[in-house]
Amino acid sequence: MEIVVINGSPAGENSITLQTVEYLKALFPQHTYTTLHVGRQIRSIERDFSQARAALEGAELILFCYPVYTFLVPSQMHRFLELIKEHHVDLAGTYASQISTSKHFYDTTAHRFVQDFCADLKLRYVRGLSADMEDLLTEEGQTEAKEYFRYLLWNIRRGLSEPPSCRSSAPLPGVPARDVKETTLSQKLHVALVADYDPEDPDALLPGMIRRFKKRLPGSMELINLREYPFKGGCLGCFHCALDGTCIYKDGFDEFLRKHVNHADAVVYAFTIKDHSMGSRFKLYDDRQFCNGHRTVTMGKPVGYLVDGDPDAEENLRTLMEARAEVGGNFLAGIASNRNNPDAEIDQLVRRLVYAVRNHYTEPKNFYGVGGLKIFRDLIFEMQGLMKEDHRFYKEHGFYDFPQKKRGKIAAMYLVSALMNNQKLKERGGVDFTEGMLKPYRAVIKKAMRRG
Ligand SMILES: Cc1cc2nc3c(=O)[nH]c(=O)nc-3n(C[C@H](O)[C@H](O)[C@H](O)COP(=O)(O)O)c2cc1C
Description:
By secondary structure, the chain is an alpha/beta fold. It has helices at 16-27, 38-47, 50-57, 75-86, 107-120, 139-157, 206-216, 240-244, 253-261, 280-288, 315-328, 342-359, 367-382, 388-396, 407-421, 423-427, 434-451; strands spanning 2-7, 32-36, 61-67, 95-102, 124-125, 129-132, 189-195, 219-225, 266-272, 303-308, 332-337.
């Protein structure tokens, strides 16, 4: 495949983000990669756009790679995106995705910005990789990068992409899948489908979407209609559950949740958009999960949504669905709605759920997940005397990653600062830290090349 990498980092070849691409190149050498250093060369690209145009027009996959800069992409890359539009480059139907590195501070808005740009240009967008700048130096980060790329290629081979994110965008025409080998599971997939609809309403659209989902699912599905669950009431915030995990209500919900939802391979939520939300019944369900404290008990399991309504018209609700998955440590396999092409979206959701269960697919957490966990980490640490179950869980899962524990790194930063301030070194033109910073990344890539 012809892959064009848009390197948006002003650091050019010395970009940390670009090292992830180099790593992927070593692991997937069967593709052709062309890199446009738009972050470093924006001035010359502005003067002459012809080379960039030729590269873009010849691409089968465009990979936007950049550091997150102040909520978004660097200004140089931002300008490059403007230029693509100003030069009317027709990229409709080409695949696109993105890789960023950052400290996850508002990586969500940056990714959404690039996704919306892709929708404007009718690119077929597949969700990108948002990595911490040091992820590639860890085995977990390397696996995440590799698995992201495998997932991206899997989507492309099957003609799958995210439903367009901009309201103005027309739905993309279908693409034929290439060399598709159907995914099979060694064991049957069991999905808990948590829904909220009135079973007596003959006009309800959700039951039809659920039937379609069930028909396509290679496995079993337990339908849990929240309207039929005998809840005694909403969470009272009494903290009774903090001590032993049991709720003060005796309606069996905590046990029900553990047995019927938490044991499923994947969880799908189905609802009709009402008053910009999932409705108060779903809210009751979420609040009552406080009986699990701040423990992410479905961690690692994929989730998905069946939505009756237009989720694109509800920015806050979309954020909520993504944040819910991020904080729960769940891969969001998709949001299938009945806005445009419900059958195709439901089928895609099923295929992605199957892929995620089979491959234990997870993504690095983004701003919602990383930020949310830091808040809870501090809270549970302070409240460990009361929230004993949470405290045990957080210790077990290494959630107490307080920065003050990284003494080596703190000391290294003092050393760097001292060297930068050293008068003699300054007189000799200063210290170039780029090589030192990139050295461990290059070692990872070298190792991958030897293996590849
Ligand atoms: C001007 C500037 C703005 C930045 N803004 C953010 C930000 O909003 N969120 C974040 O998590 N990191 C931010 N960072 C950190 C970079 O995203 C991070 O260092 C990145 O890995 C650098 O990648 P590169 O070497 O490919 O340029 C910023 C860095 C700079 C220099």
